[in-house]
Amino acid sequence: MTERELYIKSIKYRKNILKYIFHASAGHTGGSLSCIDILNVLYNDVLNVGPENFHSPDRDRYIQSKGHSVEALFVVLADKGFFPESDLETLCKYQSHYIGHPTRKVKGVEQNTGALGHGLPISVGMAIAAKLDKKDYRVFTLLGDGELPEGSNWEAALAASHYKLDNLCAIIDCNTLQITGPTSEVCNTEPLDAKFESFGWAVRHVDGHDMHELVQTLGSLPLSAGKPSAVIAHTVKGKGVSYMENALKWHHGVPTEQQYEVALHELDNAMVTIPDDF
Amino acid sequence: MAETMVESRKTTAKANLEVFSATLQELAKDDRNILVVTSDSRGSGKLIPFGQKFPEQHIEVGIAEQNLVGVAAGLASTGKKVFAVSPACFLSARALEQIKNDVAYSDNPVNLIGISAGVSYGALGSTHHSLHDFAVLRAINNITVVAPADPFETEQAIRKAAATPSPFYLRFGKKAMPLLVAEETDFEFGKGRMIRKGKDITLIATGETVYPAKQAAERLEAEAGLSATVISMHTIKPLDYNLLERVATTGKPIVTIEEHSVYGGLGEACASYLLQHNFHNRFKIMGIPDEYTVTGSQTEIFNHYGLTESGILQEALRLLE
Questions:
Q1: CA torsion angle B283 B287 B289 B293 (round to 10)
Q2: Which domains are present in chain A?
Q3: What's the pLDDT at B185?
């Protein structure tokens, strides 16, 4: 997929995220919009996984540790054909499988997540299994910067470098905001790169909304042979909708009908302004 | 029928922990997918020989129980037969959220092995006691909770858990336990094991309290001419309601005995079922009261709280008055 096509897809994904959050009157809007470009590149350019090979032991694995941004995941999985997009009309409705965090009852979801600090340990287990079985599948996990104070992440980070898991990539959706306020004020995790490096990881910073950087980085892993890769993706919470960007209240804010229309209008305008020459 | 036991185990008393380690080595020999994951617990889990013989089947994560369970879940999701081994006190408390979400909720077939369970660590104190594990795990959906009583049950439980792709929690101690019955019997998860048949009272015990219950039953017969049924209720969840109903139907008293808090364990599981099914047998739950235990060895703690042959005998006689 070309970078232009990826940009176009991201706009469609953003519109769908908002559509289904608006429809459900619930959802983690800001975080879904911050990580959607990462998911877009993963599922459309990087991961060897789709409905046709989801049960293959050789597939790449994606574990969404920041499970609350499930709307981003569901929208991408629907687009990849794991299930009809219309299923998302039941999001958070009585008896729906499409709940507010990933569950394996939804096709394409690898693991049930939602409690924070769980994705990395599970991913380490999967990556160790690949090494034991001499398989070349890779394991990707997406963490929020706000979940990094969970100690289990650092237990797993130690194990990942101890076992030289260069088939593992942790992407940190570094949108700098969490439910209480700026992550730096709630519990500062900086310098994040130095922390991961000191735990034995190879680290790279990327603009988490720049398709070129994401494609280049996620397409050329591991960052360093014999080391797990940490990709610190600098993102904007609420990215793509002016009044949601960097605004705390959109952590799990739901737009009114009027706000929703404004958001769609902005995203449609963004579509027009995508240059041809990516 | 039960699978054949290793000959050497038939004769002498052995710690369930030792049996676990030996059984796992036998399984690992023929199945490269058998993996052990430890949190600096290979020594206390008697797994040093396992690691030496099967280094590629042993994953060490260091003292990090949350990661232990998360990694085990990830391994199990790829088809590995994983035994995550850690002292029961840490495994069932510190890693409880990982057990709930990564193992049970995600349905990753991890075998969680809680070693040195109950008050096995004795005078090391309450940080090292697991008197809550039945209670917390009973309230979690999709996990089988097992406390084998003797070497036979331990070997069977390990073999069958390895062959069953669903989440398990198995806990046992390190005290040498004799075989409860000479002849081999069937072993099935969720089916209580009849150790002794009687007609005056039923003693339902689990784990290392089954043996003193059996001894109490023998004294009851010798000293009072009364006969007791003794059941090893090795599976706490799912509980064997059929067997419970059968013994309750006799109308005779029931005593439950466990190395666990009197809250939320075997006893309350039985009481809940009986009360909701209109059984009103005289009933007593024996276990550890709601307190941090007295200092002492496992034996001294058992003595202090009456989890002994004579303590169980006294309770039985009191219910039979």
A1: 170
A2: 3-273 (3.40.50.970)
A3: 82
